[in-house]
Amino acid sequence: MKLPLIDAQGNAAGEIDADDSVFGIEPNLAVVHQAVTAQQANARQGNASTLDRSGIRQASKKTGRQKGGGRARMGTPSSPTRIGGAVAHGPHTRSYRQRLPKRMRRLAIRSVLSQRAAEGGVLVAAPDVEFEPRTSAMSNLCQAMGVERSALVVSDGVDEALVRGTQNLPNVQATPAQTLNTYLILTHDQLIMTEAAVRRCEALWALPGEEDGDA
Q: Mind listing the pLDDT tens digit for each residue in 23-63?
């Protein structure tokens, strides 16, 4: 798989070879969907909680006699039908966590990286490109590289200058290659990567000797 090198002026500066097992596979959309669903579920706090009848501190005495009152048969004040009473069938604290096997997580990331690469959405910054810790400089660099909507700038490890330069850009986000995930890639139209970040992705997710369909 060939990935294009782009210089600071947005001009083509050659190509680099990338591992086909990371950037050139046939995307498995079913696994991608399952990975995104699990990631969003794991982000839920699950702390919504209501009180049932046992949790309401009210008098337990029946408010009126069963018969002869000429009205409905009223129960205790904690009844869900009374004002200030309990909630019937309400939510309680729970965990929404979904466990996704490691091989499926890897396959999902490789699938979205390959899809972005096939669409031309993966650009590699040339070695002479410098990320400055200034918003205006990073904005001009992204415009020169053809960022039209949103972009994810990926480095090998945390780049403080890159983080500072992109933190005020609403549609540009910086992240280390080690923290890439399926949902983060899908929510950005383009990936601007350093060559070191490309090699880090290959080291993390390339699976030599394993067929993708087995994951």
A: 999 999 999 999 999 999 999 999 999 999 888 887 778 88
CB proximity list for 158: less than 8 A, separation 6 or greater = 176
Residue 131, token pair as written in the block: 């990320």
Do the beta carbons of residue 77 and residue 59 sit within 8 Å?
yes
Give strand pairing partners of 173: 152
Q: In whole angstroms, give the CA distance from residue 184 to residue 117.
A: 15
pTM (2 decimals)?
A: 0.82
Q: Is 123 helix (H, G, I), strand (E, B) or coil?
A: strand
pLDDT of 58-110, one tens digit each?
A: 777 888 788 888 888 888 888 888 888 899 999 999 999 999 999 999 999 99
d(CA 8, CA 3): 16
Catalogue the E-assigned strands of 90-194.
122-125, 151-155, 172-176, 190-193
What count of other Cβ atoms lies within 10 Å of the Cβ of residue 200? Answer: 20
Using DSSP's 3-state secondary structure scheme, residue 153 falls into strand
